[in-house]
Amino acid sequence: MAERISAAEVHYPFSFVIAGDSGAWPDPTADAIFSQLLRQTADLCPAPVFLANLGDFAGPGTPERHEHYMDLVASLPMPNVSLIGNHDLEDAHGADAWAALHGPRNFHFAYGNTRFVAIDGASGQAGELGDTTPPDTAGPSAEALSFLEDTLAATTEPHRVVLTHAPPHLDGHYAPQPECGFRQGEPEFLDILRAHDVTLVCCAHGLGFDHHVRDGVRYVMSGGGGAALYLSYREAAGPDRGALFHAVEITVTEAGAVGGRVFQAFAPPGTAAPFTFGSACAHLAKQHSQIAGGPEYRWLEEREVIQRAERG
Ligand SMILES: [Fe+2]
Known about the structure:
This protein is an alpha/beta fold. It has one domain: Purple Acid Phosphatase, chain A, domain 2. Helices cover 29% and strands 20% of the residues. The chain has helices at residues 2-7, 28-42, 63-72, 94-102, 142-153, 186-195, 232-235, 282-290, 295-311; strands at 14-19, 51-53, 80-82, 107-111, 114-118, 159-163, 200-203, 209-214, 217-222, 241-242, 246-252, 258-264, 276-277. The strands form two sheets. It has a seven-stranded mixed sheet. Strands 3-2-1-11-12-13 form a six-stranded mixed sheet, covered by helices on one side. It starts with a helix and ends with a helix. Fe (ii) ion binds next to loops. Fe (ii) ion is lined by residues 56, 85-87, 165, 205.
């Protein structure tokens, strides 16, 4: 999949879609929700460059569950990028099943002037960094952190995006579910982001949507792919957080500006995005879904305005 993305013709602005936690355990209802999100992704115009599932889509990680997932995404017209989640490693042979079907847990690819680095953000309880308390707080393994550091050190593209399963703890930002953020290896992870000018981290694991900018890094959590939702995020909902089954369309301009819009599963076409973010494209996202009868046309038109602005 990564090769297909890197070989694709490059246009700016471009978009990609993230989703996560679509199948932490076998559940036909989760499959129906995620399948609908896939259909909505396929209908986006302009087409996203890829869809990244940020993990917990084939729990407990048996070969049958991975094959089932691949059947779900088979009709997706754009590449599917798969990241490993903690539930995908619950089976005793989960690691082998992953390797056989998806290959490495850590990988990277470029699209235009943006480098995407995908890491194993789920198996951090094992390894030299030691155990985590509470144990549910999975984070990147020591191997994943080394891969992230080495890859970014060798990256020539000016814009860098990290794809991973669990978000960092960020001083309990995800409260009342602070356990979804990892602490083991967090200082090292944040140091790597800082040292290599990463401005966007896409993650899942937390069962809802959250958008947060800290120290110049934008964290977008999309863990509403179908498995479950945090009820607590209904009470803690706000302009940057919600409990809804969804995916996120993220747009990147040639200059590296990022904007995003959430689309909720089963929302009728033309429905206003429940959440938008980003200085470059937030207003576009709203217009994209609000203009009756011509959202695609207006979206394209606004993108051309951005392109002209970037060309000066
Ligand atoms: Fe998870």
